[in-house]
Structure formats: structure tokens, C-alpha cells
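Problem: given the chain below (239 residues), write out its structure.
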Amino acid sequence: MLITPPATPHDFQPDLDAVAAIPAIGTILEVICRTTGLRFAAVARVTEDRWVCCAAKDDLAFGLVPGGELKAESTICNEIRSHGREVAIDHVAEDDSWCNHHTPALYGFQSYISVPITLTDGEFFGTLCAIDPHPNTLNNPSVLGMFRLFARLIAHELEAYQQLQQMERENRALHQSFDAGLGHDMRNTLAAMLAGTRLLTRTPLNDRAKLIVAEMEKSAQQLSQQVMTAMSPGALPPS
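Solution.
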């Protein structure tokens, strides 16, 4: 049920980049594995039809890397997306609610925990989840509290990243608008200067005045060319 990450940019690349930009993610996954004994932990982006690994600590050689996918319908995380509640299973084989569920049988785990990552506006981003083939003690206030805290931290960092990206987009747009307006004003000023120097060249002048006018015209032409080069589309910051 593993789906290989595409060679081309992922269609969930902004989410992958956002999670990759959170310095604490690696530490969070490390702490989860050390604290619980689980050997696979991940941050997943979960939508109605996609389960995408954004970050993982994989000591089981499960094979998931950022950008890798599972069939959404094969995961318990997809069910969590629907009902919005955390799931913690100590021992699948001894749990009447999960012993016959298709997901543990498919992926071969006996212990499982997953907590939703929900943004401030209520948007469901995905899950912080972990599994292991062996039973582990997970369904207790201590472990669940840790997962909830980490999930809230990840949600907060994702929102901070989104806000920073929005600010950078607005800043680029502001610079483009400012540069375009400034360039327009400078071109008008330089056009007036060139027109003035050409008019002066048709006026009787002494040798020193002619030299000054020629230098003024040359400087205005050079500056005009520099402005045109600076305002060309290739010179603007990327949008």
C-alpha cells in the first residue's frame, strides 16, 4: 500500500516544505519513539483521499519518507480525519474494537497512536501518529497528553510558517509596486532632462557650456538605460 514519492515536485509540496521548516519536528519524533517504545513515528498530511508523509522517524524500515504516501482508505488516520478524535491502541490482538480492523492486519502493527493536528480555524491538517509491531502502553493520560501537546505545537508552527509566507508574498508585491512606480517617475524625469539637453544643444553656447551639456546628456542616457534594465521583468523579484 506504499506509494513511491514522485520525482517531480509533489502536489503537496507546500505542506512538505512547511513541516520541513519546523526545527523541532525531528526532536518531537525522537522523543515520541524513546518515550513510548514505538519504532515508527510520523507527521502526516491527511485529506479525504490522500495520506502523505511529511516527516518520519523510521526504525522499522517501514519505507516511508517525506512525500511518500499510503492509500488513505487503508489508514486509521483517515477515520480520525472524519471523526476528529485521537486513537490509542495498546495491543490490537486483545482489543475487541480493533482486533478485526483491516489496517493493523495490513500494516502488521499491534500498538498504535494517532492524534489530530488541527489549526486554530478548525482546519484539519493531518495527524501525529506512531506504530509498532509489538504491544506498548499508550492509552493513558501521560502518553496522550504528550501527543496532544506536540500536535498543538506543530499546528502553531505550521500557522507561523503560513503567516511568514504570506508576509513575504505581500512584501514582494509591495516591492514590485514600489519599483514600478519609482521607475515610471524616473523615466519621466530623465525624458525631461534629455529633452532639455537636446534643446540646449541647439542654443548658441560657449565651449565650456557645450561640454557640460554633452556630459549631462550622456549621463541622462546612461541612467535611463540603467532604469530600463532594472525594471525589465527578469530583474524583478520572483512572485
